[in-house]
């Protein structure tokens, strides 16, 4: 995995572009997603498999679906701290991106690439041997939405064609 860190930025941007294209074409599929809902109570509906955080602002949660691949609903208290884990296969080097879709706008935005974050509110870290973690500090209402963990092998390439 350390070879991945030595990839130049332009290579990671190209891979991120490919990842963004893939997410736009597969956004209807719920695999590998986490949905964050904000609530002012700690109660959940009996029909909904929702995990709720207690009111302490430093609480953390690590959601997992039963099969490891499905859609997970998480309810967080405003002001809490939350972690989403993304465990990847160890067989290859990967570029990993956490992306977010706002339910208000439907716009996809990339929050992190590997451990590089595009801000301080949502940050990424790596925990050996294979976990790329997204941290949302001091959750607020603008954090509500769907989070995707995307990973693309740096060893596999999309076919490139140059037409002159």
CATH architecture: Sandwich
Q: CATH fold name, please?
A: Immunoglobulin-like
Going by CATH, the homologous superfamily would be: Immunoglobulins
Q: Which class do the helix and strand fractions yield?
A: mainly beta
Low-confidence runs of at least 5 consecutive residues:
1-7, 25-32, 40-61
Spatially, the strands of the biggest sheet line up as 2-3-1-10-5-6-7
The overall pLDDT, averaged over residues, is: 68
Overall tally of domains: 1
What is the level 1 CATH name?
Mainly Beta
Please count the beta strands (DSSP E, at least 2 residues each): 10
Q: What's the number of helices?
A: 2
Biased composition (Low complexity): 41-51
Organism: Cuerna arida
Domain Ig-like: 57-149
Protein name: Ig-like domain-containing protein
């Amino acid at each position: 995995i350390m070879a991945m860190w030595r990839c130049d930025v332009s290579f990671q941007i190209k891979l991120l572009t490919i990842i963004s294209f893939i997410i736009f074409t597969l956004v209807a599929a719920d695999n590998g997603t986490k949905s964050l809902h904000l609530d002012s109570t700690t109660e959940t509906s009996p029909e909904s498999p929702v995990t709720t955080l207690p009111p302490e602002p430093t609480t953390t949660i690590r959601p997992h679906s039963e099969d490891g691949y499905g859609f997970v609903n998480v309810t967080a208290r405003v002001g809490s701290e939350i972690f989403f884990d993304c465990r990847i296969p160890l067989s290859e080097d990967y570029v990993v991106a956490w992306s977010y879709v706002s339910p208000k706008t439907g716009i996809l935005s990339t929050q992190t690439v590997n451990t590089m974050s595009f801000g301080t509110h949502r940050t990424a870290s790596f925990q050996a041997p294979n976990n790329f973690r997204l941290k949302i500090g001091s959750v607020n209402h603008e954090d509500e939405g769907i989070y995707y963990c995307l990973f693309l092998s740096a060893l596999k390439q999309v076919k490139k064609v140059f037409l002159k």
